[in-house]
Bifunctional NAD(P)H-hydrate repair enzyme (Hydrogenoanaerobacterium saccharovorans), 511 residues
Amino acid sequence: MRIVTSDQMKQIEKAAALSGLSYYDMMENAGAAAVQSILRKINTNQKRILVYTGKGNNGGDGFVAARLLCNAGANVKVILVDGEPRTEDAITNINLVRTLNIEVFDLIKDIDKITVLLQNVDIIVDAIYGTGFLGELRQNAKQAAQQINTAIAAVFALDLPSGINADNGELSEDAVFADFTIAFDSLKPAHFVYPAAEHCGVIECADIGIAPQCHDYIDLSFYHITEEQVFTNIPQRPVNSNKGSFGKLLNISSSFGMTGAGRLSVLGAQRVGTGLVTLAAPRSVIAIHAAALTEAVFLPLSENDKGSISKEAIPQIADKLKEASACLIGCGISNNEDTAAVTEFIIKNAKCPLLIDADGINALCRNINVLYEAKAPVVLTPHPAEMARLLGISTAQLLVRKVELGREFAVKYRVVLVLKGANTLIFTPEGTTLVNTTGNSGLAKGGSGDILAGMIAGFMAQGIPAEQSAECGVYLHGKAADLCAARLSKTSMMPSELLEDLCILFLEHGR
Ligand SMILES: NC(=O)C1=CN([C@@H]2O[C@H](COP(=O)(O)OP(=O)(O)OC[C@H]3O[C@@H](n4cnc5c(N)ncnc54)[C@H](OP(=O)(O)O)[C@@H]3O)[C@@H](O)[C@H]2O)[C@@H](O)CC1
Ligand SMILES: Nc1ncnc2c1ncn2[C@@H]1O[C@H](COP(=O)(O)OP(=O)(O)O)[C@@H](O)[C@H]1O
Ligand SMILES: [K+]
C-alpha cells in the first residue's frame, strides 16, 4: 500500500506524462475508474445522479465521470461549485459533457433548481476538490458540502472528500462526508488520519494507468504498518537459548491506587517474550503485585507519603538500571515532584533504550528539554491529552494538526513518538511517519495503554531497535485486540484478555 503526499503525486503524474501517458488520459482513467467502482456497487440505470465539480482537475475527473455515467444510462446533472473550470483538461471535458446535453447548473445562480433536484437524488459524486485543496472551504464550497452532507444519497468522493488536506488530514469546517472514496493511483495520508479518515467511508485505490516505474524514485515518508514487516522485525527464538538471551526489562511502574497499570505493563512485556521483567515499585504495593505476577521479580522502592516512588529510591534504581537491556517508566507511577525527579534521573542516566509512558510523560512536561540529555534511544507513548500537555496546547488544537506537530516533535527531540488513538501514528527522529490500522474501540478502556507500553518495552529489551519495537508493539496490540473483539465483543473485552490473542498471533507465525 503506497501512501504519497500531494507533491509526490504531482511528481508521479509528471513521470507518467514523460513516459507517454498524457494528463488528459490520466483524467479519463480516473473518471472511468470511479465510474467502474460506482457500477460495482449500484445499478445506475435511470438513477438520479448529481456531480458536484470544482474548477481544478478534481472537477475534471467529475466531468469524465458524468459523461460515462450518462452513457451507462443514468440521469446525470452537473453542478459547478466555483463557476467554469480553469484547467485545460477539465475545460475539454466539460465541453464533452455539454455535447451530450447533460444539464450543467451553477451552484449560486441555479440554487432553486438545485434545491428541487436534491429532494430526489440517488447518488452524489463529490468532485469539488482533491489533492489541490488547502485551508478552509470558501463560502460556495461550504454551501455545496452542506447540500451533499444533508442529502439522502450515496456519496462517492473522487480522490478525497472535499475540504480535507491530503497531506495531513486537516479538516475544513463542513468537509464532505463520503460513503465511498475512490483514491487515484496512490493513497494519501489523509485517508488514514482520524478524524479525516472518518469522512472517507470505504476507501478504494484505483489504478489510473500509471506504470509502476513512475513511482520508483519517490522517497516515501509515510508508511502503513504490515504484518509481514512486523514479523521480519521479530527474530525466531534460537533453540540454544536461555532467559538471558531475551533481555532484562526494568519496569518502573505502579503506585498506591494504580497497581493495575504496573501489572498490565509487566504482562505486556512478558507476553512478547522478554527474558526477565523486574517491576520496580513502591515498597507498600509489592505484596499486591507478587500475588498476581508469578513470573516477575521485584525491586521494592522507597516511597513518599502518597504511596508513590520517592527520590530516595534513585540509588536503588541506578544499580538495577546498569543491568537492564531496556527500561520502562511511567505506568501508574503518579505525577508529583518525586516521580518527576526519578523520571529525569532515568532519562539522563539510562544507557539502555527507554520507554516513557503515562505519568512519565506528565513528569516530562515540567522540563521537556531533559530529552536532549538522553544517552540512548527514547520512545514516548502519549495519548492525545498527554501529547497536548507536552506541547502546552489543547487536545482539540493537537488533533487538527497532529501529523505536523507529531513529526516536528519527534525530529526536534530525536525520539520515537507513538501518538495513540484510532489509527495510531508513529513518528521517527528521521521525519518518517508510520500509521497503524489494527485495533478497535474495544481498546478504549483503562489499561490498554499499559499493555502496549509493556509490549513495546519488551521488544526493546530483546534488542529490537526502538522504531521497530514501536511498530511491532502497536500493530500486534491492535491485531490481538481485533481477534479479542471477534470472540468477546468490543463492548465486553477486557484489555488483559487481548494477551491470549497475542499468543495466537505468535503461534500463527511460528514464534
Ligand atoms: N494532475 C493531473 O493531471 C491529474 C489530477 N487528477 C485529479 O486532480 C486532482 C488535483 O487537481 P488540482 O491540482 O487541479 O487540484 P484540485 O484538487 O482540483 O483543487 C484545486 C482547486 O481547489 C481550489 N481550492 C484550493 N483550496 C481551496 C479552498 N480552501 N477553498 C476553495 N477552493 C480551494 C483551487 O482554487 P484557487 O485557490 O486556485 O482559487 C483550485 O481551483 C487530484 O486530486 C485528482 O482528483 C487526476 O485527474 C489524475 C490526473
Ligand atoms: N477507538 C480506538 N480504536 C483503536 N485503538 C484505540 C481506540 N481507543 C483506544 N485505542 C488504543 O488503546 C490504547 C489506550 O491507551 P491509553 O489511553 O494510554 O490507555 P490507558 O492509559 O488507560 O492504559 C492505545 O493503544 C490506543 O491506541
Ligand atoms: K473530491
In short: The domain at 243-508 is CATH 3.40.1190.20 (UDP-N-acetylmuramoyl-L-alanine:D-glutamate ligase). The chain has two domains: 6-217, 243-508.
